[in-house]
Amino acid sequence: MLSFLFFILVFVLVVALIILSTLWGLIRSIFGFGKRRSNNSNGNNESENTSSFRSKIFEQTEGEYVDYEEIN
């Protein structure tokens, strides 16, 4: 009997945790809690500018299809 009550208690606690975490996520999404803010004022513009200066790493022929040739 005591193990059954313990099981019910654990089950209720797990369900309560799931409901609370869902509600907390909903509240965070509505009010914007916990969003990380960038330190620089440019945001993602800085990463876009640096990517334009990089040269292409792969060659032009990299990843192209070649004719299949079976070897006997």
Short structural description:
By secondary structure, the protein is mainly α. The protein has helices spanning 2-31, 45-53. Helix content is 54%, strand content 0%.
The proportion of strand residues reads under 5%
Report Rg: 28 Å
Mean pLDDT: 76
Shape verdict? elongated
Oligomer: single chain
Residue windows where pLDDT falls under 50 for at least 5 positions: none
Q: Could you spell the SSE succession in H and E letters?
A: HH
Annotation field: number of helices:
2
The separation of the N and C termini measures 73 Å
- How many distinct beta strands? 0
The residue fraction in helices comes out at 40-55%
Structural class: mainly alpha
Provide an overview of this structure.
This protein is mainly α and 72 residues long. The chain has a domain of 30 residues. It is built from 2 helices and no strands.
Main features:
72 residues, mainly alpha, 2 helices, 54% helix, 0% strand, elongated
Topology of this protein?
Layout: H1 2-31, H2 45-53
